[in-house]
Amino acid sequence: MQNLKYLPLRELNQISGRTINAAMAVHTYHGPGLVESIYTDSLMIELEERGLKAETEVHLPVYYKGIFLEKYKRVDMIVENSLLVEIKAVETVLPVHQSQIMTYLKISNLKLGLLINFNTAHLRDGIMRVIL
Predict the structure, then answer these.
(1) Cα 98 to the chain's mean position, in Å?
(2) What is the pLDDT of residues 27-86, one digit of tens each?
(3) Would you call 123 helix, strand, or coil by DSSP?
(4) What is the pTM of this model?
(5) Strand pairing partners for 55?
(6) What are phi and psi of 73, to 5 degrees?
(7) How far is CA 51 from CA 15, 19, 46, 83, in A?
């Protein structure tokens, strides 16, 4: 696992804005209807072209009362070691998806996450910012 950065919200907003713009470029290119892995791989390429560092399938350690459980939770993507991104390609984002990203933020101690559902006609309708 990389060293996570806990940036001020202003800097996180800049990173999330650039990430959202990259996701919109991917959605414009592919449109809805593909599987998550294609959107993830495409977003990685788009982020790299925009000078943003990202890692996929990042494993976060899980603790209970300060005790490491020797388990890890895999999250879809972390951009610039500071922005958590969960990618979906589902008909409807469910409350459980929103709960998951909140839990991932708690586990990672990160402040901001994006839940991006690429299975929408207009991507702006599939983006949810989650602040912890």
Answers:
(1) 12
(2) 999 999 999 999 999 999 999 999 999 999 999 999 999 999 988 999 999 999 999 999
(3) helix
(4) 0.92
(5) 78
(6) -105, 130
(7) 11, 11, 9, 15
